[in-house]
Design brief:
Elements lengths: L1 E11 L9 E11 L8 E5 L15 E3 L2 E3 L2 E3 L7 E2 L4 H9 L6 H30 L1
Length: 132
């Protein structure tokens, strides 16, 4: 599991789930939860019909990957998702808590409080800069 940003991609002619073309993405790893931060390439089938994921370059993702041939791989069944939609998976990985426990919901409340305070400070700073 890691949080990363796809920075480039190329197509490999075969090796996918149904031996079809694969899309190989070069990732910049921002945060590794399990495994090494050295995760230079991630493979997924090029076709969504073969469970391939359409990664957008520059968008951060919460990635569940598994070993496959020469690369780490992922697919639509792996819970890989854009980071803004990762919610409970991200909090669970960040704090090592099981989803649905009281500690999990407390951690979510703390993170939401931090986010609200940060946004208010940013808004206040922007207003002060505009008024100056």
């Amino acid at each position: 599991m890691f949080v990363g940003i796809p920075v480039a991609a190329h197509t490999s002619p075969s090796g996918g789930l149904f031996d079809g073309p694969q899309r190989i993405h070069d990732f910049k790893v921002l945060w590794a939860f399990k495994g090494s931060r050295e995760i230079p390439q991630l493979a997924t089938d090029e076709s969504s019909a073969a469970c391939g994921l359409p990664f957008l370059t520059g968008m951060p993702y919460f990635v569940y990957a598994y070993a496959s041939n020469d690369f780490l791989a992922t697919n639509t069944c792996s819970r890989t998702t854009p980071l803004p939609l990762a919610g409970s998976d991200f909090v669970s990985a960040l704090f090592g808590l099981d989803v649905g426990t009281g500690e999990f919901y407390a951690a979510v409340a703390v993170l939401l409080t931090i986010l609200v305070v940060w946004r208010r400070r940013m808004r206040r700073q922007r207003l002060l800069n505009e008024g100056a």
